[in-house]
Amino acid sequence: MSSRGKDPIPxxxxxxxxxxxxxxxxxxxxxxxxxxxxxxxxxxxxxAVEVSPSTFFRYFPTKEDVVxxxxxxxxxxxxxxxxxxxLTPIQALRGALRAVFAGLSADQMTEQWxxxxxxxxxxxxxxxxxxxxxSMIDLVADLVARRSGRGADDIAVRAYAGAIMGALxxxxxxxxxxxxxxxxxxxxxxxxxxxxxxxx
Amino acid sequence: MSSRGKDPIPxxxxxxxxxxxxxxxxxxxxxxxxxxxxxxxxxxxxxAVEVSPSTFFRYFPTKEDVVxxxxxxxxxxxxxxxxxxxLTPIQALRGALRAVFAGLSADQMTEQWxxxxxxxxxxxxxxxxxxxxxSMIDLVADLVARRSGRGADDIAVRAYAGAIMGALxxxxxxxxxxxxxxxxxxxxxxxxxxxxxxxx
DNA sequence: AGGATATTGCTATACACTATCATTTAGTTG
DNA sequence: CAACTAAATGATAGTGTATAGCAATATCCT
Lengths: 200, 200
Known about the structure:
The structure is a homodimer of 200-residue chains. Chain A has 2 domains: 12-63, Homeodomain-like (Arc Repressor Mutant, subunit A); 70-195, Tetracycline Repressor, domain 2. Helices cover 72% and strands 0% of the residues of chain A. Chain A is built from 10 helices and no strands. Chain A is globular and about 55 Å long. The relative contact order of chain A is 0.08. At the A-B interface, helix 8, helix 9 and helix 10 of A face helix 8, helix 9 and helix 10 of B. Chain B binds a DNA duplex (30 and 30 nucleotides) through residues 11-13, 16-17, 20, 41-43, 51-55, 57-58, 61-63.
């Protein structure tokens, strides 16, 4: 019982936990940047944060998660759900992407970009991201189903959702040395192209 | 110099290697089926095949690869390349899939199906498969580029390729407890739907 | 203040994977 | 066929991620 919202009083314990979590991630990313992902051990990270390795794994189940964890994800999902109801799924997605990244500071931009490059450079991390990506097909399929009046298991609906995610994913592997805005523009263009029915 | 084809005389050593490789994979898959993937150690597999753990890793770089390695993959790629030149990429893909799986024995069918279910059930394996899948976007993009007269870096081309892979991937996560033919039919239907321009 | 509870650190352990070197086995040449 | 070369194997020791259990400590609540 008592699973109420915890907005007003975070509590001392909660605050400490949040700080530790942030410290671990910050130091980890710094070390990864300085000496590489593989060359950095969990032990080193723990030492830098001045906690035990045990504690590291209590906060992040794996070494990978310390990079993958992104507090922007829930924001994006919320923005997606908050889009007007008369849009197609693709339009809603484009709108959400625009809305979220428009409200980002320069620091946040560069941080996001660095994180993404790190993820793409390390095979393990890239795979994890792909898994998250693939699991979003289900999410999108539900949305497509609701707006099209078909079932969520409909082959057409699922193919549609898959195509959306695929088109979104395509620029990720294309980019050699671009910037974040360029990258987002590519994603948007791909979605627009898909919405037009892939008129090659 | 002297990098000739080796069709006529496999050689004793080569034959032994092929046998060892096959034995490792066979025993590994059996043990995975009997006691689960995680519960089976490389040591156990090596013991079952009567080789040293070192040898296991000489044949398969990781424990995952013993499941992922599929001698059907090159066949599929070859079939893809052998499709008539006047087809669209999607048509070529559909043709290749049909051609390859039509010529499969019942045993091969069930084996392929079991392998796929194992891969989907184990997160690590699923991720590896997704990575392979994603890397195929490049392949498909080249093909699309060639037939459409656009560049391989063209956003439209890449989005098109991504959409193809996404549509192919969609049924993989949809299926609850189907059969292989059902599964293939879903893939084919998804591609057909995509080719029609996603008319929802 | 004091007792329930959450968080942490420590120790031991399992397992995937790597590196190195001695040994055996297959292929080759005089 | 015997000696040489090259490849495959086995054994050993080690690294790093991740898990489990227990004892110590810090926070929370009354």
